[in-house]
Amino acid sequence: MAYNLPPLPNTITDPAVREFLEKYYAKSNEPELHDDFAELFTEDGEYNMNNKINKGKQQILAFRKAIWSHVPGRDHRPTQIFSNGDDQMALMAFGEVAYQHHAGHETEASWAARYELVKDNRVVKLKFCHIIVDSVAHV
To answer: For the whole model, what pTM was predicted?
Structure first.
């Protein structure tokens, strides 16, 4: 599942990190991939969106289903991804998201995110994800 990422900084050297980011953004845009999205997290991972904190895969899965019930489509477009110094497992990103609404109109919002990645049996997973997005854009 390929996704067009913006240019990554030179500090991200592990191909597994790039592959993870491609999967993460591609799955973020697919309304039917709730289980696949939750699998991107560690068992005790945390998904925090606008201070709605969800811990563990079951809470993340329930939250993901709930937020998708409000809009039938979304398109996340990261515009910049950067690391915390040389630590390619501590990332931040900025971007835009377009929402398609049940009533037929579209809205857009800016977002920012912080990611803490870990390797679990050589597979990159999210340990922590905090997203801040303008929630008014959901209307």
So the answer is: 0.92
